[in-house]
Amino acid sequence: MSEPTHHDPLHFDAERSAEIVTASFAGATDERLQEILASLVRHAHAFVKDVGLTVEEWAAGIRFLTETGHACDDTRQEFILLSDVLGVSMLVDSVNRPSDGRFTESTVEGPFHLVDSPARALGDSIDEAGRGGEPCLVTGRVTDGDGRPVAGASVDVWQADAEGFYDVQRPGEVPERNLRGLFTADEDGRFRFRTIVPRYYPIPSDGPVGALLKTTGRHANRAAHIHLEVSAPGIRTLTTHLFVEGSPFLDSDAVFGVKESLIRSFAEVDDPARATEHGLPNPFRHVDFPITVRRGAQP
Amino acid sequence: MSEPTHHDPLHFDAERSAEIVTASFAGATDERLQEILASLVRHAHAFVKDVGLTVEEWAAGIRFLTETGHACDDTRQEFILLSDVLGVSMLVDSVNRPSDGRFTESTVEGPFHLVDSPARALGDSIDEAGRGGEPCLVTGRVTDGDGRPVAGASVDVWQADAEGFYDVQRPGEVPERNLRGLFTADEDGRFRFRTIVPRYYPIPSDGPVGALLKTTGRHANRAAHIHLEVSAPGIRTLTTHLFVEGSPFLDSDAVFGVKESLIRSFAEVDDPARATEHGLPNPFRHVDFPITVRRGAQP
């Protein structure tokens, strides 16, 4: 038998397990990858030790990951869904786009920004289907941290309909790119468009992630929201949601996308003159969403 | 806008992110699952924060997991391979089967215990193919923590051949269940069998896990070993390896399976009388592997 060499780092030892595995990556030329793997290994090993993971539980984890992988195809990304329901997607967003209170907060982009939004004129309606729903006027103004308007800012919007479906979930039933629009703010940074109030909707729940939610007593719903992506030369692109005050699930959004500052009243307006001015039936709902963006290069 | 309710735990907040997500599992009826998810979320969020994971790095992680899932099928388990090369499999083994120094140490079972080993008589050869390799005698004795023999213990063995392949990797080329054997120890706990010295071999490296090893400058090889699984009524089943002293990769086994105490000399014996006694050519190699098992129920 060979003489034991207790300081050889690559013979397994439960006490030093993360250190041993991290040492195996010492030859990696990509230092950032090495740093990420070291942290990943440290946390994965601490998790196993902290909970005293049994062999059966480990095997159940392997099965879950395998099923999640098999649920992924060209149109479905079950691992992103897993990241979403574990709050990891929102955390990655926050880590990369911290808000200091002066700027409009961001949220995740989500999986439905699949197609380019059609360019539309300020005041246009994005509801091409006309299948019902509460008529709504959305107004806003894009300014920078000093309150100066961002003239000509691009405001890309997309949303679910009054039954909780995006256009891409209803191919053939609704016009392509229904409830999507790419607007250009005016010289004063202002934008406006007509739409219908979106409904809350469930994330796909017929796969392993849905089974996890069910097993743990969680629902699969997202609170009602309109997606906005605001960009302009010289500002950092903002990806966010505008949440409908009073929507179910604001306090338990399945992907943790809700931030207090993004919840807005979609107040009822009963004013025939204003309705006519905007080309809306009376009464209608109105939400105003002032947006403050950060000047500077993309990170 | 709704009044902010700063103590609502399910609106996202980067500082308290793990706490918020853990609270979402409060309705789970399975307390153990709740405990595991809480630790998983805590470590996953700490990992993202510790390294400051970028959106691009997160996306690369999603892609890697998806490819790993797609590489899994009925005959290949790429997630187990990932667990192996990150040392997680060995850690789970250690957490569940701690050694206090008195008992023979365990290692992982590995993916090649696919078929039942054929029952063989003590002293039989497990090398049915006869395709070459160094002839070898393996002897051992199974005792308990007090040094008492475990009469009639089952000793299940399987190994790669002199070129580093298991029978299941060479269907049609070698007899089925070649280099596998199920032996029954005698009244004194002793067992012996003839075989050939196994060679080191690479784990499957044509998938995402192989790509990870390559990118990080790691090789895919396992040090040469014979697998043993020792069981008997009233003792805890031991799954371990017997490593060949002097094998390449003992200090860098790709799955971290090596423990000092499991490395043994396969010493050359030049003794025509002993060779004849055991039905082996002269010279031959001999390894003795005393095995100490723990009495008690399976955990």
TrEMBL record, chains A, B:
Family (UniProt): Belongs to the intradiol ring-cleavage dioxygenase family.
UniProt keyword terms in alphabetical order: Dioxygenase, Iron, Metal-binding, Oxidoreductase
Name of this protein: Hydroxyquinol 1,2-dioxygenase
Ranges for domain Intradiol ring-cleavage dioxygenases: 138-166
GO BP term, example: catechol-containing compound metabolic process
Keyword presence, Nucleotide-binding: no
An annotated Gene Ontology molecular function: catechol 1,2-dioxygenase activity
PANTHER family per record: DIOXYGENASE, PUTATIVE (AFU_ORTHOLOGUE AFUA_2G02910)-RELATED, INTRADIOL RING-CLEAVAGE DIOXYGENASES DOMAIN-CONTAINING PROTEIN-RELATED
Source domain of life: Bacteria
Cofactor or coenzyme needed: Fe(3+)
Biological source species: Streptomyces alanosinicus
Metal-binding keyword on record: yes
